[in-house]
Write a structure and sequence with these properties.
The complex is a heterotrimer of chains A (734), B (218) and C (316).
Chain A (H helix, E strand, L loop, with lengths): L1 E2 L23 H5 L17 E7 L5 E7 L1 H5 L3 E6 L21 E2 L5 E7 L2 H8 L3 E6 L6 H4 L15 E4 L2 H7 L2 E9 L11 E7 L2 E6 L4 H12 L6 E4 L15 H13 L3 E4 L2 H7 L6 E9 L5 E12 L20 E10 L13 H18 L4 H7 L18 H12 L12 E2 L2 E13 L5 E7 L5 E4 L9 H13 L6 E4 L16 H24 L7 E3 L2 E4 L2 E4 L9 E9 L2 H4 L3 E13 L5 E11 L6 H20 L5 E2 L4 E2 L18 E5 L23 H13 L10 H4 L7
Parallel strand pairs in A: 1-25, 2-13, 11-12, 15-16, 20-21, 27-30
Antiparallel strand pairs in A: 2-6, 3-5, 3-7, 4-6, 8-16, 9-14, 10-11, 10-13, 14-15, 17-18, 18-26, 19-20, 19-25, 22-23, 23-24, 26-27, 28-29
Helix pairs in contact in A: 9-10, 9-16, 12-13, 15-16
Chain B lengths: L49 E8 L2 E8 L4 H8 L18 E4 L2 E4 L12 E3 L1 H4 L7 H9 L8 H16 L18 H7 L10 H12 L4
Parallel strand pairs in B: 1-5
Antiparallel strand pairs in B: 1-2, 3-4, 3-5
Helix pairs in contact in B: 3-6
Chain C lengths: L4 E4 L3 H10 L3 E4 L5 H6 L7 E4 L8 E3 L5 E4 L4 H6 L1 H6 L1 H9 L3 H6 L2 H6 L5 H4 L41 H7 L3 E5 L5 E5 H4 L18 E7 L6 E7 L10 E7 L5 E6 L9 H4 L6 H8 L11 H18 L1
Parallel strand pairs in C: 1-3, 2-3
Antiparallel strand pairs in C: 4-5, 5-8, 6-7, 6-8, 9-10, 10-11
Helix pairs in contact in C: 5-9, 12-13
The chains are: A alpha+beta (734), B alpha+beta (218), C alpha+beta (316).
Chain lengths: 734, 218, 316
C-alpha cells in the first residue's frame, strides 16, 4: 500500500480498540517469567555449549601474539575462535568497528577471542587463560583536545552537516540581546537490563541465531555479510528483547562469536556478553561539545540562532547530530548549524535513544532558559513567541501538526508553573532549595517502509506475522489492537508473532518509528485481508463492515471465520510512503516540567515532581504510550544527574564499565510521573494517523532538570551530568 | 529447527541431565555420545570440583550435582531451566536475579548453589503462572509496571518480599524513627525497591502496582 | 572464576584447621563481595570454607552492657535489631544506607568489614593495580579519581574503603573478636583492623592468615544523638562520595567518623575535641594533611558541609 495522500476516514477511526488503555498482551508471560529471551532457549535444538568473550586490554594497537595453549588445555574447552582462525570476515553495513578484533585493535574491550566450553563456568575460567600480547599504539581519546582538528563530516542525502539561512553572523552581532554559551554532554551508555546475547546453531551452511535485536532485517543482512553467507541462509529469532535503546539496532559481537564458536565446536553455542565488557565493547551515545548562539530583539523574537556541535568517533563513524532540532524548533530569520567530527579511538559511537535530539535538546533548552532570563521573559512565553508553523529553514514546508505551544501552556497550567519564582535561589523548604524548570520536547517523526502478513483461520482468529520487534515498547499489543480494529475482532482473537526473519520485513524498533510504521504495515495487510474475505464470502468489498467477529453488508452477516472455512486466508502487504514527509515536516512535540530540591548542605539533587505533555499524533494505546514517556523521563533524569562514561584519556577507555560504576536512576530517584497526551491525529503520517512517542519523552527532560537546578540555586551548570561537585563551590552557606 | 534428541528432557522433567550437572539418580539419560569431546580431557588436578546439593524450588525438591562454581542463578537458569530469573549483570549491581530464599529476597547471582543445601527457593515461576497470576504479577500487568520485561521477575520477587519486610518491622534508610515500626509509604517502597534497576524506567508504575497490593487487606 | 573445592565447616576449629590445611583457602559467608571478585579472578581461592554453619548469628548482651554481634549476623538483621535501633542508631542507619535490601539480607557483619575497595581500576584486571597485583603500579593515580581517597593515601594506592557499617563501628569503638588457626583468640580494636595503603595496599587488614572474625562487640551505649549521613549522586544503591557518622551529646561533644575519603574508616580523635566549635574546626583537624586530586577536591568541602548539616540535625 502506497501512502502518498493524507489519510481520510478509515476503519482505525472507529477507535473501538485502538486508542484504549489496554494492558499488554504479553504481560502475563513477562510477569511470570515465561517470556523467552535470547539466552533462554532450552527447548530448541541440542544442548548448546557456552561461549565467553575475551576483550582487548588496549584501546589501540595490534595483537603481537596470542597464546591459546593454556586455555585450550583447560577442562571442557571445545574451541577458541580468534581473528587468526575465524576465516575471512566481512564487516556489517551498520558496524563501524569490527566485531572481532585482531591483529589491529580499534578500541578497548573489542572482542579478540571467544572461548567455547561445555559449561559456562569452564568457558569463563578458560577465557582468563587466553594470553594476549599487545603492541599498543598512541591513540586520541580526548574530544576537547580533538575539537580544533575536527572535520566536516560527509552529508547523507537531505542530512547535511552544515546549514545556513540568511546572515547569521550579521544578525547575531546586531542583536540587542545575545547568548553565546558552550555546553557539554558526556558519553552515555544504553545499559539495557538484558546483556547482548545470542545462541547460534548451524545446520550445514544454514545458521539460526536466537538473539536480542531491534532490527531483524538489518541484522540478518549484516550476519550474512560478516560471515560471507547468502542472506537466505540466515534466520534470526528475537521475540523478546530485554531493552535496547539503540544498543541492539545492530549486529554485535555476541551474535558473530556465537556463530563462529558454534561452527568451530560443531555444536550450538550461546554467548551472553558479560556486563563489565558491555560498556566498551558495544556502542554508546557519543559525547558532544555544543556552542549555541542566540540573538533576539528586546520583545523576545529570535533574530539569529546558531548551533554547532563537535563529537568524536572511530574512522568511518558518524557524528552525533545534536543540531538537528535547532534547524526546526524555533523561528528566526538568520540561522546556522554545523556538525564537526573528531577522530577518536574510543569505542564506537552510535545511536542511543533519540540520537541527535537527546543531547541536542540537553543544550538548546538550557540556552533557551538562559535567553528567557536575559529577556526577562517567562521561559514558556519566550518559547511561545518563537513558535513557527513552518520549517524555518524552508518556509514553504509546513509542519504537519505542531502543538508545541499548546503542550507548554497545558503543562504550565497542570503543573502550577505560575507558582515558580523567576528569581533563582529564593525558595527554601527545610534543608532543600527548591526549583522548577521546564523545557520543550521535540523529536522528528520518521516514515519507514513496513510489512506484515495476516492469516485468518476458520475459528475466526487472525494471526499477524512481522519481523517487527517489541523492545518493551508495546509492539505486541498495539499490533494486536490494529488487527482487531481492522478485522472487527476482540483482542483475544488476534495472535501476534514478532521478531523472526522468516516474517515480512518491518520498520523495526528504533528512532521512535516503530509504532506508527509497523501498525501501518499491519493496516495495509489487513486491508488486503478484508478484500480477500469479502471476495471469498461474495460481498461487494466497497460496503462491507467488519464488526463483532462478523462480516456484514446490507442484511447479510456471516462470521469472519467462515471465510477461512476451507483453507486459511493469508494476506501480506507493506506500507510504503510517498512525498508527504518531503512536503510537510513531521515532528513530535511536547513540554517537560520538573520540580526538584537541592540539598543546601551537600548539593544532592532529588526530583520531586515531573510532568510531560506530548502531542505526537494518535495515541494507539495510552497505557503503553505513557510507559514509553515515563521511561524516557526516567532516562532523562539519569542523563541530567548521573550518567557519564568516564574516559581515561591516557589509555582510552570508559573506566566505570559496570552497573555499579555507571549509575542509572533507581526507584528512589524517581517520583510519581504525570503525562498528558494532547488529542491529536496527524493524517500526513500514516493511515494510523500516529507518530512516534518513545523518544520524544526523553528530549528536553535533562534540560528541564538543569533549569530547575538553576531556579533552585542560581547556579547555571552547562556540563552534564549535573553532579553535586559542580554545584558545591557555589552553593550558599547552609 | 532440529528436533530435541533423545537424551534431552522436557522443561517439566524433574531431573535434567547435562554433561557437568548430572542429575542424581539419572543413569543412562545423560550419555553425551553425540557431543564432541572437549579438547583436553580434564586431569585430576584441574578438573572442575563437583558437589551435590539438594534444595526445594517452588515446592519441588531438586537434586543436582554441580561444578562448585555454579551460582544459584545459573543453577536455576541453566540446570533447572527456570529462566524466569534473569541475569542482568551477574555482579549484584542490578537485582534482576532476585529470588526469595527462606522467605528473604536475595540476589541469586552472588551466592553459590552448593551453599543452599536444604533451602527453600521461590522464583518468579513459583509465584504464579500466566493462567493463574500472583496478585503482584497481575498488578504489574494492570499498572504496566514493566516494559521490556527483563528486570520484571526480580522486581516482582523483590516487591513481594518488601511487603513482608515492612510487615516484619524492618526499617529502611528512609524510615523516620528507628524505634517505630515503618509505615508503608511511597518513599519506603521506592527506597526498598532501589536494588532492582529498571532501565526502561517503569518505576512510577511499579510503585503504583505495589501500592495497590499493599493496600489490600491481608 | 577458578575452580575450587568447597567444604562446610561445622566448628570454628574445623574452619581454622581447614584454612591451614589448604593453601589459598578463603572463608565464605554472605559471598556478596567475594563471589563478585572471584568472577573477575581478582580473588582466586582454590578452596572455600563455608562458615555459615558456625552459629555466629546471634546478637547478645555483654556483661559490660554492650552487645556482641556474631560475625554471621546479616546486615538486615543487625539493622533491624531492637537494641541496635534503640542504643546504636548510628549503626542501623549506616547499615541501611548501604547496598540494597537483597544484598543486606545476605551480607554479614564480618564480611561487611572485610569488603574490598570499589576502585574501578582495581576491578579492571587489564589495569595495573598494586592492591590486586602488588608492584604493578596504580592506574588510578592520574586517572579518573572522583571517588578516590583524599587523605591517608600513598603513591601506591588511592583507593577508599567502601563500607558504611564500618564507619559506624569505628565511631562506636567496636572491637573485633577473632579465632586463629592455632586455637587462640584475640580482640582487635576496630581502629586497628583496617590499614592505610602505604607500600602494601594489598594488605588491607591486620588479620593473619586463616584468622576468622567470630564477632564484633559494641561497648555500652554512649547515648547522644546518632546521625549517619551518606552523600551520593543517586538516591540509593550507590557507594558514598562522602559519609559522615556522628554521635553528638547534649553538650556538643561527641564523635565523628567519615567514609568515602580514605583507605579505612576515617576518624581523628583529636578533631572530635573541636566539635563544640563546629564543623569547620572539626573538618580542619580531620582533614589535616589531605591531598586531594583535581577530581575529588570537592570532598574536602563536602565533608565540612555534610558535617555541619549532621551537627545541625543532631541539635534537633
Amino acid at each position: 500500500m502506497k501512502f502518498d495522500t493524507p489519510a481520510t476516514t478509515n476503519p482505525i477511526d472507529q477507535l473501538k480498540i485502538i486508542g484504549h488503555a489496554t494492558s499488554r498482551i504479553d504481560g502475563p508471560l513477562k510477569t511470570t517469567g515465561k517470556a523467552t529471551y535470547a539466552y533462554e532457549w532450552h527447548d530448541v535444538g541440542s544442548r548448546p555449549a557456552y561461549g565467553y568473550i575475551v576483550g582487548s586490554a588496549i584501546a589501540k594497537g595490534r595483537i603481537a601474539s596470542i597464546d591459546l595453549s593454556r586455555a585450550k588445555a583447560a577442562p571442557g574447552v571445545m574451541a577458541i575462535v580468534t581473528a587468526e582462525n575465524a576465516g575471512k570476515l566481512g564487516k556489517g553495513n551498520y558496524n563501524t568497528a569490527k566485531l572481532l578484533g585482531g591483529p589491529e585493535i580499534d578500541h578497548y574491550h573489542q572482542a579478540v577471542a571467544v572461548v567455547v566450553a561445555e559449561t559456562f563456568e569452564q568457558a569463563r575460567a578458560a577465557a582468563q587463560l587466553v594470553q594476549v600480547s599487545y603492541s599498543a599504539a598512541k591513540g586520541s581519546f580526548d574530544l576537547a583536545a580533538g575539537r580544533d582538528g575536527a572535520a566536516k563530516p560527509p552529508g547523507r542525502g537531505d542530512n547535511q552537516p552544515d546549514t545556513n539561512v540568511g546572515d547569521f553572523p550579521g544578525a547575531f552581532a546586531a542583536a540587542p540581546v545575545q547568548l553565546d554559551a558552550t555546553y557539554t554532554t558526556p558519553d552515555q551508555a544504553h545499559a539495557m537490563m538484558e546483556p547482548h546475547a545470542s545462541m547460534a546453531a548451524w545446520d550445514g551452511d544454514k545458521l539460526t541465531l536466537w538473539t536480542s535485536n531491534q532490527m531483524i532485517a538489518w541484522t540478518t543482512g549484516d550476519v550474512a555479510k560478516t560471515l560471507g553467507l547468502p542472506k537466505e541462509n540466515v534466520r534470526l529469532i528475537s521475540p523478546f528483547i530485554g531493552g535496547g535503546f539503540g544498543g541492539k539496532l545492530f549486529l554485535r559481537s555476541d551474535a558473530v562469536l556465537a556463530a563462529l564458536g558454534a561452527r568451530a565446536a560443531n555444536r550450538p553455542v550461546k554467548v551472553a556478553m558479560q556486563r563489565p565488557l558491555m560498556f566498551n565493547n558495544t556502542t554508546h551515545r557519543p559525547a558532544t561539545i555544543q556552542r549555541i548562539r542566540i540573538g533576539a530583539n528586546r520583545d523576545g523574537k529570535i533574530t539569529a540562532i546558531g548551533h554547532e556541535s563537535w563529537s568524536g568517533n572511530l574512522p568511518e563513524g558518524r557524528p552525533e547530530t545534536a543540531v538537528q532540532q535547532t534547524r526546526l524548533l524555533y523561528a528566526g530569520e538568520n540561522r546556522m548549524t554545523a556538525l564537526r567530527l573528531a577522530m577518536l579511538d574510543l569505542p564506537e559511537g552510535n545511536a542511543m535513544r533519540a540520537p541527535g535530539e537527546a543531547p541536542g535538546m540537553m543544550a538548546l533548552e538550557i540556552a533557551m532558559d538562559e535567553m528567557a532570563e536575559r529577556l526577562n521573559l517567562d521561559p514558556v512565553e519566550f518559547r511561545a513567541r518563537n513558535d513557527t508553523q513552518v520549517d524555518p529553514e524552508h518556509p514553504g514546508r509546513p509542519f504537519s501538526r505542531r502543538q508545541l505551544v499548546a503542550c507548554m501552556k497545558t503543562g504550565a497550567e497542570r503543573f502550577g508553573w505560575s507558582a515558580r519564582n523567576a528569581e533563582p535561589g529564593k525558595r527554601r523548604e527545610g534543608r532543600w532549595l527548591v526549583g522548577m524548570g521546564m523545557a520543550a520536547a521535540f523529536r522528528n517523526n520518521l516514515l519507514m517502509k513496513s510489512g506484515a502478513r495476516v492469516r485468518l483461520d476458520r475459528s475466526g482468529t487472525v494471526t499477524v506475522e512481522t519481523d517487527m520487534t517489541d523492545i518493551g515498547t508495546g509492539s505486541y499489543t498495539i499490533i494486536a489492537q490494529t488487527a482487531a480494529e481492522m478485522m472487527g475482532l476482540p483482542l483475544e482473537k488476534v495472535v501476534v508473532r514478532l521478531g523472526d526473519s522468516s516474517f515480512p520485513v518491518s520498520a523495526g524498533s528504533g528512532g521512535q518509528f516503530g509504532a506508527n510504521n509497523s501498525t501501518s504495515g499491519v493496516y495495509a495487510a489487513c486491508v488486503k485481508l478484508r478484500e480477500a474475505v469479502a471476495q471469498k464470502l461474495g460481498f461487494n468489498s466497497a460496503d462491507v463492515a467488519f464488526s463483532d467477529g462478523q462480516v456484514s453488508s446490507g442484511n447479510r452477516s456471516v462470521p469472519l471465520g467462515q471465510a477461512a472455512s476451507d483453507s486459511e486466508l493469508i494476506a501480506e502487504d507493506s506500507i510504503e510512503y510517498g512525498d508527504l514527509a518531503k512536503t510537510h515536516q513531521q515532528s513530535t512535540f511536547g513540554a517537560h516540567f520538573v520540580e526538584l530540591g537541592v540539598d543546601v548542605a551537600t548539593a544532592e539533587i532529588r526530583v520531586r515532581r515531573m510532568l510531560a505533555v506530548c502531542a505526537a499524533g494518535r495515541v494507539l494505546n495510552p497505557k503503553t504510550a505513557r510507559s514509553q514517556v515515563i521511561g524516557a523521563m526516567t532516562m532523562g533524569v539519569g542523563a541530567a544527574l548521573m550518567e557519564e562514561l568516564a574516559v581515561d584519556k591516557r589509555t582510552g577507555f570508559f573506566v566505570n564499565h559496570d552497573l555499579a560504576g555507571y549509575e542509572v536512576p533507581v526507584h528512589a530517584d524517581i517520583p510519581h510521573q504525570d503525562t498528558i497526551f494532547l488529542d491529536e491525529t496527524d493524517p500526513m503520517s500514516s493511515p494510523m494517523k500516529a507518530k512516534g512517542i518513545g523518544e520524544l519523552g526523553l528530549c528536553g527532560v535533562a534540560a528541564a532538570l538543569a533549569n530547575a537546578i538553576y531556579n533552585a540555586t542560581g547556579i547555571r551548570v552547562r556540563d552534564y551530568p549535573i553532579t553535586l561537585d559542580k554545584l558545591l563551590h557555589r552553593m550558599p552557606d547552609a | 529447527m532440529r528436533k530435541p534428541s533423545a537424551f534431552e528432557m522436557s522443561r517439566r522433567n524433574l531431573l535434567i541431565g547435562t554433561a557437568t550437572s548430572v542429575a542424581i539418580g539419572a543413569t543412562s539419560a545423560q550419555a553425551q555420545n553425540s557431543v564432541p569431546q572437549p579438547l583436553a580431557a580434564a586431569t585430576a588436578a584441574d578438573a572442575p570440583a563437583m558437589a551435590t546439593v539438594s534444595f526445594n524450588v517452588n515446592g519441588e525438591v531438586r537434586a543436582l550435582k554441580l561444578d562448585t562454581r555454579t551460582t544459584l542463578l545459573d543453577a536455576l537458569r541453566e540446570h533447572l531451566h527456570l529462566t524466569g530469573t534473569k541475569k542482568g549483570c551477574d555482579h549484584g549491581q542490578c537485582g534482576a536475579c532476585a529470588v526469595i530464599v527462606g522467605g528473604q529476597r536475595i540476589n541469586s547471582c552472588l551466592t553459590l548453589a552448593v551453599m543452599h543445601e536444604g533451602d527453600s527457593v521461590t522464583t518468579i515461576e513459583g509465584l504464579g503462572t500466566p493462567e493463574h497470576m500472583h496478585p503482584m504479577q497481575a498488578a504489574f500487568v494492570k499498572h504496566d509496571g514493566f516494559q521490556c520485561g527483563y528486570c520484571t521477575p526480580g522486581q516482582i520477587c523483590s516487591a513481594v518480599a518488601v511487603l513482608d519486610e515492612i510487615k516484619a518491622g524492618i526499617p529502611s534508610h528512609v524510615t523516620d524513627d528507628l524505634n517505630v515500626a515503618p509505615e508503608l509509604t511511597n518513599a519506603e517502597l521506592r527506597e526498598r525497591m532501589s536494588g532492582n534497576i529498571c532501565r526502561c524506567g517503569a518505576y512510577s508504575n511499579i510503585a503504583e502496582a505495589i501500592t495497590e497490593i499493599a493496600g489490600r487487606p491481608a | 572464576m577458578r575452580s575450587f573445592t568447597y567444604e562446610k565447616a561445622h566448628s570454628p576449629a574445623a574452619a581454622a584447621s581447614a584454612a591451614v590445611r589448604t593453601s589459598n583457602a578463603k572463608f565464605i559467608a554472605g559471598g556478596t563481595n567475594l563471589l563478585d571478585l572471584m568472577k573477575l579472578e581478582i580473588e582466586t581461592p582454590s578452596h572455600l570454607i563455608d562458615v555459615n554453619g558456625l552459629g555466629f548469628d546471634k546478637i547478645e548482651p555483654t556483661p559490660e552492657g554492650g552487645l556482641r554481634i556474631g560475625a554471621l549476623v546479616r546486615n538486615t538483621a543487625l539493622a533491624a535489631d531492637e537494641r541496635v535501633r534503640r542504643d546504636y542508631g548510628l549503626l542501623s542507619r549506616a547499615l541501611l544506607a548501604g547496598a540494597s535490601g537483597q544484598l543486606r539480607n545476605k551480607a554479614t557483619t564480618a564480611g561487611n568489614l572485610l569488603q574490598r575497595t570499589r576502585c574501578p581500576y582495581f576491578y579492571d584486571t587489564n589495569q595495573p593495580c598494586n592492591k590486586r597485583s602488588p608492584g604493578s603500579g596504580c592506574a588510578a593515580i592520574g586517572g579518573i579519581t572522583r571517588q578516590h581517597a583524599v587523605i591517608g593515601a600513598s603513591d601506591a594506592c588511592i583507593a577508599t574503603h567502601p563500607s558504611d557499617m564500618a564507619i559506624a563501628m569505628r565511631a562506636l569503638d567496636a572491637t573485633v573478636q577473632t579465632a586463629r588457626p592455632d586455637g587462640t583468640t584475640r580482640n582487635i580494636p576496630i581502629a586497628d583492623l583496617h590499614r592505610l595503603p602505604g607500600n602494601t595496599p594489598h594488605l588491607e587488614t591486620t588479620l593473619g592468615a586463616g584468622e576468622l572474625i567470630t564477632s564484633v562487640t559494641l561497648p555500652k551505649p554512649l547515648g547522644g544523638t546518632h546521625v549517619y549521613r551518606k552523600v551520593r549522586d543517586r538516591a540509593s544503591y550507590a557507594f558514598a562520595l562522602v559519609s559522615v557518622g556522628a554521635i553528638v551529646q547534649r553538650d556538643g561533644t561527641g564523635r565523628v567518623a567519615v567514609g568515602g575519603i580514605a583507605h579505612k574508616p576515617w576518624r581523628v580523635e583529636a578533631a572530635e575535641a573541636e566539635m563544640p566549635r563546629g564543623a569547620k574546626a572539626v573538618a580542619a583537624r580531620l582533614l589535616d594533611g589531605a591531598k586531594p586530586t583535581r577530581d575529588n577536591s570537592f570532598k574536602l568541602a563536602l565533608v565540612e558541609r555534610t558535617l555541619a548539616a549532621v551537627l545541625t540535625e543532631a541539635k534537633g
